[in-house]
């Protein structure tokens, strides 16, 4: 049974042993010459004992599990993670560095991830077709029943406004196929217009400069992971569906043999990210043989997490050190952070410490 440490949020005190603590604990800090560490680092140092250092975890893979997380990969693009099980690793070995999203890869083993029309709109305009000379611009995507509707401007000598209603499915080689069922160009029936001139979408648009998008005949094909900004995400998509205002992508084959799922320390938390194994670096902290569960401070809605602002979310929350030297961290939703210049009100800690389940 891994219980919460009694040293949670202990005050910062000077200690002649803090240099040793920097070497002993699962979380290693950068200490200054005076022997002081950050408040969070010293709380960890107070709560931990010597780990087994016989295993070199520097190049080990970190397993990751997420539930009900809105993961911001761009201020305008959110991955609505219903559930995710996979791994994280540094591209060039060493620790996974949270502060450098270009440096690591997330591999999806089994996951369901949604994108709203607004997310797809931003993705297509900023990343897929956001290059000089792109044949498509001013794109807007919305869902309609079990279809998507995409509108915008087609550049072919002149700007041609268009609207395309389409179905979505997944090809055998793991691409999302967008198949038009109704097309309007300049407000008229685009299907009849193209047929009359012997044209297809492939003949109208050149996508050589696009990122993760190709065209064949009248169908558009998207690589679900290549169209995303960093961090790099890998995984094979097996299904796609329109559900409400989201396009939901399913990764991993239902018939594949899954690994034993990760069980987080705190099973009462509905919205969380859980990292296990390997080495993580976030700010000045280096976590060896990592075990960290990041929990939503407000469980009444999804956990909104922005990798680019995680330190602000961390400061606005609190953490608890477990006796097995892992961490449980409560973070505030990114959209609930105070405005610049304002100081976040420190949340009240639970009256009774959470007792994580045994693993």
Content of β-strand: 35-45%
The computed structural class is mainly beta
How are helices and strands ordered from N to C?
A: HEHEEEEHEEEEEHHEEEEEEEEEEHEE
Helix content: 10-25%
Largest sheet: 11 strands, mixed
Radius of gyration: 24 Å
Could you list the spans in which at least 5 consecutive residues all have pLDDT below 50?
1-25, 31-58, 355-359
Q: Specify the overall morphology.
A: elongated
Beta-strand segment tally: 22
**Rounded mean pLDDT score:** 81
Distance between the termini: 7 Å
The number of helical elements comes to 6
Description:
It is a single chain. This protein has 359 residues and is mostly beta strands. 13% of the residues lie in helices and 40% in strands. The strands form three sheets. Strands 2, 3, 5, 13, 14, 15, 16, 19, 20, 21 and 22 form an eleven-stranded mixed beta sheet that branches. A hairpin with a 2-residue loop joins strand 11 and strand 12. Residues 1-25, 31-58 and 355-359 have low confidence and may be disordered.
Quick summary:
With 359 residues, the chain is mainly beta. The longest helix is centred in the middle third of the chain and has 12 residues.
């Amino acid at each position: 049974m891994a219980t919460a440490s009694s040293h949670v949020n202990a005050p910062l005190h000077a200690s002649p042993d803090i240099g040793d603590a920097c070497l002993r604990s699962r979380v290693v800090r950068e200490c200054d010459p005076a022997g002081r560490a950050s408040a969070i680092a010293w709380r960890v140092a107070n709560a931990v004992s010597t780990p087994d250092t016989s295993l070199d975890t520097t190049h080990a893979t970190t397993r990751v599990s997420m539930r009900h997380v809105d993961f911001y990969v761009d201020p305008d693009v959110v991955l609505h993670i219903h559930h995710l099980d996979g791994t994280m690793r540094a591209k060039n070995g060493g620790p996974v560095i949270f502060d450098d999203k270009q440096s690591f890869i997330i591999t999806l083993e089994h996951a369901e991830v949604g994108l709203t029309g607004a997310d797809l709109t931003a993705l297509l305009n900023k990343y897929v077709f956001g290059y000089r000379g792109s044949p498509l611009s001013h794109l807007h995507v919305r869902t309609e029943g079990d279809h998507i509707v995409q509108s915008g401007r087609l550049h072919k000598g002149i700007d041609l406004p268009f609207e395309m209603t389409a179905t979505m499915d997944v090809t055998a080689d793991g691409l999302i196929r967008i198949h038009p069922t109704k097309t309007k160009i300049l407000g008229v029936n685009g299907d009849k217009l193209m047929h009359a001139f012997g044209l297809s979408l492939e003949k109208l648009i050149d996508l050589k400069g696009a990122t993760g998008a190709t065209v064949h005949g009248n169908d558009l094909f998207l690589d679900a992971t290549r169209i995303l900004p960093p961090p790099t995400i890998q995984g094979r998509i097996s299904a796609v569906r329109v559900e409400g205002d989201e396009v939901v992508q399913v990764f991993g084959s239902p018939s594949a043999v899954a690994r034993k799922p990760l069980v987080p320390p705190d099973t009462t938390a509905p919205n969380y990210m859980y990292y296990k194994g390997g080495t993580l670096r976030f700010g000045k902290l280096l976590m060896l043989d990592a075990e960290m569960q990041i929990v939503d401070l407000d469980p009444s809605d999804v956990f909104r997490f922005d990798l680019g602002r995680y330190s602000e979310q961390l400061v606005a929350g609190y953490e608890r050190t477990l006796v097995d030297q892992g961490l449980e961290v409560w973070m505030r939703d990114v959209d609930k952070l105070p405005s610049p210049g304002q100081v976040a009100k420190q949340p009240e800690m639970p009256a009774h410490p959470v007792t994580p389940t045994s693993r």
